[in-house]
Amino acid sequence: MTISKSVKVTVVASLFVVAIGGVFYLNQPESANATQSTDDAYIQADFTIVSPQIAGKISQVLVDDNDVVKQGDVIATIDDRDFVAAVNTAKAQVVSAQASIKSLQAKLINQDAVIEQAQATLDANISTLKLAQFNLERYRNLAADGSGTVQALQEA
Question: Which of 33, 44, 77, 156 could disulfide-pair with 60, CB 3.0 to 4.6 Å?
């Protein structure tokens, strides 16, 4: 049996088309397949760790999953009630410290007045002592020449 030339060409051409189709089918990328399978799978993902500069409870999240954010974008807000309370406490401590300073300044002014009063008392006592010394000297002289009494000398 002899095969005609046209049948041979048709068979060779068919085999050639099947071979080329097989090459294209086997070399297509896996991502183009309708179903995919693997024995050694892994997932590669880009992720960034986000950490706040201060600790606190999150009160509002401003982004959703897979949103694009840029550096400096606000992505969440932290509940500030604890920080407001801390600031108010610090302000109260400042006011209390200022009141203590004013009280100490008033005490200092009062102490200056007490010092001046003590100095005046000392000056008066020195003057009284000098007068008593002068009187003593005078009554000694009087008692020595008989002009004064012994009682006046003793009182002086």
Answer: 77
Residue 11's SS3 state is: helix
HSE-CB at 96 with a 13 A cutoff on CA atoms is 6
Which residues, at least 6 apart from 79, have a Cβ–Cβ distance to it below 8 Å? 56, 57, 58, 59
% residues pLDDT > 90 (the chain):
39
Going from N- to C-terminal start, the domains of the chain cover: 81-155
Among candidate residues 36, 74, 35, the one with its CA nearest the CA of residue 52: 74
Residue 105: predicted pLDDT: 93
Question: What is this structure's pTM?
Answer: 0.43
Give every CB contact of residue 35 below 8 A, 6+ residues apart in sequence.
Answer: none
> What confidence tier does 156 reach under pLDDT thresholds 50, 70, 90?
low
Hey, what are 150's tokens?
Answer: 């012994």
CA-CA distance, 149 to 142, in Å (whole number)? 8
- Whether residue 47 has pLDDT greater than 80: no
Residues 46-85, buried b or exposed e (16+ Cβ, 10 A)? eeeeeeeeeeeeeeeeeeeeeeeeeeeeeeeebeeeeeee
